[in-house]
Write a structure and sequence with these properties.
The protein has helices spanning 8-71, 76-103, 110-127. By secondary structure, it is mainly α.
């Protein structure tokens, strides 16, 4: 059984229709990939924000320590200095851990780029 031959405009119309569908699919894939990567980044960002907040507390303790140290040159300022140092160390560790984890999150939708390259090659082959 022979298949009827199609005209050039029909073939071109099919090709352009397929290209449009491929582009739509690529945009959906890119959107899903970016959404996935954003959700992966949420945890490290939260961790970093907690570290920043604790850093502000460390600054508050440092200022409080300076006030106590200047107003009374006795033991209470030493305790405040220890608290400031401890909160500062914890905040630096949290910020550092958050930044390290954030660097591990992919920033480019690599799968989308790869499939776009494949689709461009497919379209070129169809036009030939």
């Amino acid at each position: 059984m022979a298949t009827p031959s199609r005209s050039v405009p029909e073939v071109l119309q099919d090709i352009f229709g397929n290209i449009q569908e491929i582009i739509r699919s690529e945009f959906r894939l890119a959107k899903a990939e970016i959404k996935s990567e954003a959700s992966q980044a949420a945890g490290p960002i939260k961790l970093s924000l907690i570290g920043v907040v604790l850093g502000f507390y460390a600054l508050g303790f440092l200022l409080y320590t300076a006030v106590l140290g200047l107003s009374m040159v006795v033991a209470p300022w030493i305790a405040a200095l220890i608290v400031t140092a401890a909160v500062g160390i914890v905040s630096m560790a949290l910020v550092s851990a958050g930044i390290k984890r954030l660097k591990q999150v992919p920033k480019v939708p690599e799968r989308t780029i790869e499939t776009m390259k494949e689709n461009v090659q497919w379209a070129k082959n169809q036009i030939r």
